Amino acid sequence: MTQTSKRRTVFVLIDGLGDVNIDCLENQTPLAYAKTPNMDSLAANGVCGLMDPVQVGLACGSDTAHLSIFGYDPRVYYRGRGAFETMGSGLYMDVGDIGFKCNFAVYDPETGIVQKRRADREFGSWGRSLCDYLNEHIQLCDFPRHTVTFQYATEHRCGVRIKGPGLSDEISDTDPLKDGLPLKTSVALTSSREAQQTAVVVNQLSKAVHEALEAHPLIIERKKRGLSYTNIVLFRGCGRRVDLKSFREKYGLRAFAIAPTKIIAGLTLCLGMELVPAPGATGDYDTDLLSKARTCVEWMRKEEDYDFGFIHVKAVDDTGHDGWLQGKCMFLEKIDEMIHFLLEQLGESCVNLVVTGDHSTPVTHKDHSLQPVPFVLCPLPFGSLSSDWPIGNITKFSEIDAGFGLLGRFTGDQVMPIIQYFQLV
Questions:
Q1: Domain count of the chain?
Q2: Residue closest to 53 by CA, chosen among 40, 66, 41, 39
Q3: Partners of 162 in the β-ladder
Q4: Per the domain annotation, does 1 fall within a domain?
Q5: What's the rounded Cα separation, in Å, for the pair 393 and 44?
Q6: What does the pLDDT read at residue 3?
Q7: Which of 50, 185, 211, 377 has the fewest CB atoms lying closer than 10 Å?
Q8: Could you tell me if 381 and 329 lie in one domain?
């Protein structure tokens, strides 16, 4: 490389990036088919490879994938989604607290059936006030040393934090997972006293929430008028806040994250990253991707001297889950425009630009799958890699082409060592 000082890193992670060959795309993947000249330029001027986020052959979740990619073994540190969702929704958690990702739902107390697992999508207009109401009215009479806090997230979702002695995340959910099935009773998954007690706490909380919502004037009025309503909260994905070494302690890097998606926001907070809002960035289809890029550039130029900027992009994963082929190609091209802005603003800086995914979400499968994802690390300005590096003749950033790259095939726990290596070369 022509630069000898330590390089900083901008890391763009495209959720659900990978896919499979599709007949109507001339037997190409959406990434290979999409027009992505800026990502292609990164591949031509950087080092590429194929990355299995956790391990070969595993269709992983975003949470475990991110842990692995950031260098925290999910087999050791993963304690469920709840803590990440709760932190991401805006509730700080201490070590030992438990959190849940929850749905406001519709429940028939006479039959015990959960009629709708998700309240109306327009629920957001009154979801925040219901969370405030529950915070004022919910008390666990049998557990006076335990406190419960509700935090509205998005649509029908909220985060719930429980503080108190002797809590465990080794309990089952109350969510039946499908409409029209009975509300589940939380049970301990181990014989520990803490798990047994926590299951009792959650079941008492579930009952108290139902009774409080049934008595809410708004719910009573909406039921009378035949409008959509909610009368229960489903407790899902219990997770305990664990004591993790911060990203800065682990790597000596001062990091910020732009991650509107709650679970990723919470995970980065647990790692001690600075969570930075970007105006108009929502984490869904109407997100402002250029706002993420502008915010990233602004923070990389701050006097505080950040070493590591992380941008998470969710919409591509949603297109995979929705089976929206055209949308996946379209959003990949929009992300390429975002990367073009990063190159315009940072192209002459001593920065390494990394682009990869956290897993594959094929549009034909509509779920996470086991295929590896392409990875590229490109030192800026273009041409910073000396001719001694056998980077090959890659001209397209795609699942197939990246497999011919210098890095070969590797697992997610090698991402940070690769980044650290190229910071110092």
A1: 2
A2: 66
A3: 98, 148
A4: no
A5: 7
A6: 44
A7: 185
A8: yes
Q: What is the mean pLDDT of each run of 10 residues along the chain (425 residues)?
A: 72 98 96 98 96 96 96 93 89 92 95 92 80 95 94 88 96 95 98 98 98 96 92 95 92 97 93 96 92 97 89 96 96 98 95 98 96 97 81 90 96 98 86
52 and 106 fall within a common domain: no
Q: Are strands 8-14 and 351-357 parallel, antiparallel or unpaired?
A: parallel
Cβ-based neighbour number of residue 135 at 10 Å: 13
Helix (H) or strand (E) holding 50: strand 47-52
Tell whether 380 and 277 lie within a shared domain.
yes
Regarding whether 410 and 286 lie in a shared domain, the answer is yes
- Rounded Cα distance between 96 and 220, Å, is 37
Amino acid identity of 366? K
Contact between 140 and 208 under an 8 Å Cβ cutoff? The reply is yes
User: Are 277 and 408 contained in the same domain?
Assistant: yes
The DSSP annotation for 140-195 comes to -TT-TT-EEEEEE-STTEEEEEEE-TT--S-B--S--SSTTEEPPPP-BSSS-HHH
Q: Can you give the C-alpha Rg of the chain in angstroms?
A: 23
What is residue 2's predicted lDDT score, i.e. its pLDDT? 44
DSSP 8-state secondary structure symbol assigned to residue 316: H
Whole domain around residue 195: which residue ranges?
84-240
Contact (CB, 8 A) for 17 and 369: no
Compute the Cα dihedral for 240, 242, 247, 248 and give only its sign. positive
- Residue at which a domain ends, from 240, 267, 292: 240
pTM of the model: 0.88
Cα–Cα nearest to 89, from 80, 79, 102: 102
